[in-house]
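Lay summary. Proteins are chains of building blocks that fold into shapes, and those shapes determine what they do. In this project we predict the shape from the chain. Here is one chain we studied, written as its sequence of building blocks.
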Amino acid sequence: MAFDITFPGQGNIVEFRLRGVLTFDTFSRLHQGLYFSPDWRTGMNCLGILEKGTDISAITLETMRSELREEVDRIRRLRGPEFKMAWIAEDEHNLPIVRLWKTMPFVANQYEVEVFRQADAGRDWLRKFERSRLTIS
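And here is the predicted shape, written in a compact code that computers can read:
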């Protein structure tokens, strides 16, 4: 499998790690495992780590504007209105595509995204938004 998901025992930060060659189908399956899991609660935020050696070159601008845009619209309600996403790019060459994703209007207008090189920096940013009470959907 191209990803692993870890739901927190406490807190609201769900972590997932992606590896290998990623396609739209990878993200669709990831979203299924995240937002349709019985462990998902509205109010959770995500830390997504693109592991060293991950290839996201199949995620083109056209893929973002079409399939991924539809996917964002499909899962918007499940994420909740205050959803935050921290992306970690362990390889520098993946930073431009993740930063481009962050600036897409259908992303920037729906949830907050930050991009980091180190997982600890992303976790620290997300911890600012932790709440002791989560909404059960």
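What the prediction tells us: The first helix runs from residue 24 to 35.
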